[in-house]
Automatic annotation (TrEMBL), chains A, B, C, D:
Origin organism lineage: Bacteria, Pseudomonadati, Bacteroidota, Cytophagia, Cytophagales
Designated name of the protein: Four-helix bundle copper-binding protein
Superkingdom, taxonomy of origin: Bacteria
InterPro entries linked: Csp_YhjQ, YHJQ-like
Transmembrane segments: none
Coiled coil segments of this chain: none
Pfam families per UniProt: Csp
Amino acid sequence: MQNHQQHVQICFDCAAACEHCATACLREDHVMMMRDCIRLCRDCADFCKMCGSLTARDSEFMRQFMVLCADVCDACANECSKHDHEHCRACAEACRRCADDCRHLSASA
Amino acid sequence: MQNHQQHVQICFDCAAACEHCATACLREDHVMMMRDCIRLCRDCADFCKMCGSLTARDSEFMRQFMVLCADVCDACANECSKHDHEHCRACAEACRRCADDCRHLSASA
Amino acid sequence: MQNHQQHVQICFDCAAACEHCATACLREDHVMMMRDCIRLCRDCADFCKMCGSLTARDSEFMRQFMVLCADVCDACANECSKHDHEHCRACAEACRRCADDCRHLSASA
Amino acid sequence: MQNHQQHVQICFDCAAACEHCATACLREDHVMMMRDCIRLCRDCADFCKMCGSLTARDSEFMRQFMVLCADVCDACANECSKHDHEHCRACAEACRRCADDCRHLSASA
């Protein structure tokens, strides 16, 4: 239960970082270079919001969802880590943390 | 900006409390008495997730949304405060905090 | 592309049926008997909205998501088909159609 | 009720058009020119999904939400109509239809 509450917060923190990063990328001069980042942040924000919701509501599907959510977070973290912007760095970190916690919780009984 | 980050967290905390409360209400023996609570928690969870997202992405519509979100949070807080369950008490508190912060931020320039 | 447009509509139709069914279940006299239906409709509505969105935006994660979405739709259809309410019958039908289309599309190259 | 079912479909059609338009804009060569379109499609997709959901679940907040949703649809339609891409034209049309229906329904008793 304690673990679940923490996971919910980690998911929503990641969603917030992704929403912020997508907007900030759209405002960069070199928006062309940020296409993949915007695209992945859009997906990752939605996955993390849903992962947080399913966990908070103790859904029977939350563990299967976490497995997929971890992959989306990985993809977003990998793309964000290619860029030097502070919002990308923060987003990559939030995504890695969320991916780790998704894998950890989905593996627990 | 600092205020916005804090608001995002308050919104997502409220969404988590509402998702949890709706599930817990469905598991109560007297689920009949919890209908309104489940209904309002369902709406409030969605409003607060969206409010957190719009704030994190710095949407031009966030202030108008906060005004409406505050009303939804009030309605949910009022219903939850009629019940003695710990999940209802926690949800009412999260809703009131979110309503206050929505009103505070939407009124700021 | 044609198939994708159709899938988006099937997903959103299912989401609408689930949202409607959850509300209608909450209004039934024997809400106690409808707990599982409400719980599953809540999850299924969110999964189908996300499945429709990922498909409409041509997300690289849509096929993996469809596999999981099909399972959620099955679970909701199975529960809804236990009840005689018209909203449950309509929801079960929408869920089965969505599960089929998720499996069909996720298997296509 | 008939009107509500139709509104749900109009909302979800608009959400699908916005999700598709945002992705297509990100793939255009002149992505720089499409920033505002991507930003507004992102918001409008979320508003329309929520408007469809609130209507399908017969939420007490749906009318107030429609008023705001109509403004978001207008803003997205105005931006999309500045561009010649087929996805922008289709999105503008879906947004106008949704804005009209939101205003029509929110004004009805």
